[in-house]
Amino acid sequence: MAVNWALPFDEKIYPEKGVVVEADAYTRMHSSTIGDYRNFWAGIAHEIDWYKTWEKIIDDSNPPFYKWFAGGELNACYLCVDRHAMGPRGDKIAIVWEGESWGDGAPKETKRITYRDLYKEVNKVAYLLKNTYKLKKGDMIGIYLPMIPELPIVMLAAARIGVAFTVVFSGFGADAIAERMNDAKAKLVVTADGGLRGGKIIYTKQMIDEALGDAATVRDVLVVRRAGCDANMLEPRDRWYHEELAKIPDNARVEPERMKSEDPLYVLYTSGTTGKPKGQVHDTGGYMTIVHATMKWVFDANDEDMYWCTADIGWVTGHSYVVFGPLMEGLTQVMYEGSPIYPEPDRWASIVERHRVSVLYTSPTAIRGWMRFGEDFVKRHDVSSVRLIHSVGEPINPAAFRWFHRVVGRDRVLFGSTWWMTETGGIMISHVPGKAIIPMKPGTNGMPIPGIDADVVDVNGAAQKPGERGYIVIRKPWPGMPLTIHGNPQRYKEVYFSRFPGIYYAGDYAVKDSDGYFWILGRADEVIKVAGHGLGTYELESEIVRHQSVAEAAVVGVPDDIKGEVPVAFVILKAGTEPGDGLREEINAIVREKIGHIATLKDIYFVTRLPKTRSAKIMRRVLKAVVTGTVIGDTTTLEEEASIDEVRAAYSELQKELGNK
Ligand code: WTA
């Protein structure tokens, strides 16, 4: 089926700076890198420091569980901190942190942390974890912190002593935390009394207290004082971070642990379409290699840059491109604590101006947020320092691309949309100004980066025709791929390597146009992308049915002007219960508390039955079509075993029911 996605496949925009090559020249260069991808990646891995070089570039004796640079030894914290602190970058600022609170005209709170400061602080925290808490290689800790400097510091300190960590986004609620802590078997959790967002306090410690009732492995809680609110410290479990650190000598040093390349660095959870979230286990050597490569190629990073990735560290973008990437490259970066529109909608533009940001990595949701308030808010500020922009997390619509390119990019800078996933560890498809630029097209993702064999395939796994929708896959292993799903290797195999045997299935729909550009269209599964954050419909449904009056629930994502997508729910009530707004509010309160604010349901429709296939699968396409008022087309998707007549019948029945209300 040929489709018209109404995407500007033919429009080409040339950035003012950089080496621009046409698509076919890039494709030729790219082919040469994937032909001998092992040696290609080994060449890149040699650019980072190893205590010991690997014995094998890739141990592929047990696919799909690949071990990159097997036998090599390195330490991620050493790469990000020691190398710079002990070298010429000792006095260079690593992080300019801006707190959210705001005085008259000037920021009330700014911290400038040099690489040497970072070294001292990370060593002290590593000392604390190792000596006070007796944590060692093989242990896991949980981190639930707002965007404050302690967050990267604790991550680096854990990496220093070989302790793996799992960060939970500080907007997540109690159930989401408990589930992750249990799965990860975290022994210690680091949190804060509270965080600041939009001028309000987010009570993080309170959430941890609630979560830990259900998380048996956690023995200790370390609490950073940030918001100054009551932290309800429970003896002997809870201790203040600043008090514990005060007991440690300023010159405390902890040798970085020599980690094997295939030792886990961290676990980060992604939403499952069924069952509990999947803990993606990232290794050390392959991960640091992909992060290093993409910092150079995608962000064209150099010492003079002022880099700013606006992502929260709670998501993979923050792991790779706030913590490990920029620090590994010895850059100076901005880190901002709070809301993009506090105290006014120009906050981000003012940060760009104040710190002379040159490389900006943000998201389509943020960009649409800027657009909503209009360009006057941007024009109050001089944003001419920006020389490169990338976005991530969801497809960028051409209108948002054009607006941002004009208003912030002054019609001349390179502006890309980098495609990747928590699973991939680093960016996979993107413009690579650090190598060669192909002309931009508004909304495209560009082409796979060197060494990445990504493609769009049809239902049988054969290369899809140009311009036709297919599934995105990665054919060859790459550094940065997960080691496994934590505690569930079988699931890793099933989810990613069984749809098309032996090759990585990403779960996104995509089109490759006739020039070879990739356009990611969105998830092909039941993950909803709310402001770029993935939520599984299953997770939401499990919370909704907690309400005593709910018998069954189905959640789908519907388009939203700012957030890209938002969840709506169809709910069947137990007999004898009356639907109403009070009930809607109660259901939403559960969702917010247990999963988090991002999961708030935009609408709740009360129905008496749900459209299902003969094998009892919910026909989500029907639900979606009814809400958005779109027409059900003449095809069935792969996922549905229902005939088109059944789909149609279900559609009109549901429409009738909602219309009657
Ligand atoms: C989506 C975020 C379109 C995609 C780094 C993917 C994108 C999911 C883009 C992973 C982009 C990410 N254009 N879609 N530039 N980047 N996605 O794990 O659906 O939070 O599968 O990782 O985000 O989300 P995750």
Written account of the structure:
- The protein has 661 residues and is α/β, with parallel strands linked by helices.
- It has a seven-stranded mixed beta sheet, sandwiched between helices. Strands 7-6-8-11-12 form a five-stranded parallel beta sheet, with helices on both faces.
- Helix 9 (285-297) packs across helix 10.
- The longest helix has 18 residues, at 115-132.
- The chain is globular.
- The model has no long low-confidence stretch (mean pLDDT 93).
- Bound molecules: 5'-O-[(S)-ethoxy(hydroxy)phosphoryl]adenosine (WTA).
How do the helices and strands line up, and which of them pair or pack?
Layout (H helix, E strand, L loop, with lengths): L22 H13 L1 H9 L10 E4 L7 E4 L2 E2 L1 H10 L7 E6 L11 E5 H18 L7 E5 L5 H11 L3 E4 L6 H11 L3 E5 L2 E3 L2 E3 L1 H9 L7 E5 L13 E3 H6 L12 E2 L3 E7 L7 E6 L1 H13 L8 E4 L6 H13 L3 E5 L10 H9 L3 E4 L1 H10 L1 H5 L8 E5 L5 H10 L6 E5 L35 E4 L11 E6 L9 E2 L3 H9 L6 E9 L5 E6 L3 E4 L2 E4 H8 L5 E11 L3 E10 L7 H14 L8 E5 L12 H9 L15 H16 L2
Parallel strand pairs: 4-17, 6-7, 6-8, 8-11, 11-12, 16-17, 16-18, 18-19, 19-20, 29-30
Antiparallel strand pairs: 1-2, 3-13, 4-5, 9-10, 14-15, 15-23, 21-22, 22-24, 24-25, 26-27, 28-29
Helix pairs in contact: 3-4, 3-5, 3-10, 4-5, 6-7, 9-10, 12-14, 18-19
The site of 5'-O-[(S)-ethoxy(hydroxy)phosphoryl]adenosine (WTA) has 23 residues, from helix 10, strand 20, strand 24 and strand 25.
Bound ligands, each once: 5'-O-[(S)-ethoxy(hydroxy)phosphoryl]adenosine
For the secondary structure, the number of strands is: 30
Q: From the alpha-carbon coordinates, what is the Rg to the nearest angstrom?
A: 24 Å
Strand content: 15-25%
Largest sheet: 7 strands, mixed
Range of helix content: 25-40%
The shape is: globular
> Mean pLDDT, rounded to whole units?
93
Question: Low-confidence runs (pLDDT<50, min 5 residues)?
Answer: none
Q: Roughly how many Å apart are the termini?
A: 37 Å
**Assembly context of the chains:** single chain
